Amino acid sequence: MSALVVSGHNQLAISLSDEIHHAKDNALAATGIIARVSNHEELERASSAFKDVSQVISEVEKSRKAVKAPFIDWGKKIDATAAAFVAELKTEQVRVATEIGNYETEQRIIRERAEAAAQAERERIEREAREAQLAALRKQAEAEAEANRLAALAKSAKQKEAVEAMRAEAAVAAQAEIVIIEAMRAQESESVAVATVVQMPQGIVIRNDWDFEVVDMVKLVRARYDLVRVEPNRSAIKDALDAGVREIPGLRVFRKTGVSSRTGGRREVMEA
Fold first, then answer.
1. pLDDT of 65-84, one tens digit each?
2. What is the separation, in whole angstroms, between the first and last Cα of the chain?
């Protein structure tokens, strides 16, 4: 689906005039004979050739800007038309996205609280089960100790058999109690409530990304300079140099030779 429609733009063609082609050929012919500048006469020829190529470049640049200007204006009109059309949509987009995000945040908090409560309940069940097992083992140990005591006092084989039967019965009872405790713990663990996961509609993606805001740039630079991008302010540095400053910590200040010519009231500069 094409939302914006512009008609007639496929019919445009770009070409260069015969005059500018001729001027380019003449300028290149003039520079082609400049091998080096070693005397005043050669300087005059080189300067004239430099002005010729600068003039052609300047004319092409002026023409480029003039021809491109309407398209830039059209681009701005296209941007403005699209922006005006979607302004209300973007407002609603932000509002609805905020509502979705708020709902997801509420659900996340509910899930986290439910998971924390479930974990606490599981820990309680584990703790009580361990305590019950220890109590059962203590009872088994006490029963065995009592059986051993009675066995030591027994005077006949019949009494010893009765003591051994008592000891076996106590061990079976203790093991049965441990099995019951394990079954109860498993049943209680399964009954612990688990938070419901809210499924987002198809095409909707919720991202809980980490973000940041700078509250103290100086502290950030001192602590983690690798997280900060520092760039020189070239225009301010050039202003300082033009004002006479020649030593700036962190900079190497030097002269740079350039050649310039005035064409059509404009100054063309070439750095050497």
1. 988 898 899 899 989 999 99
2. 53
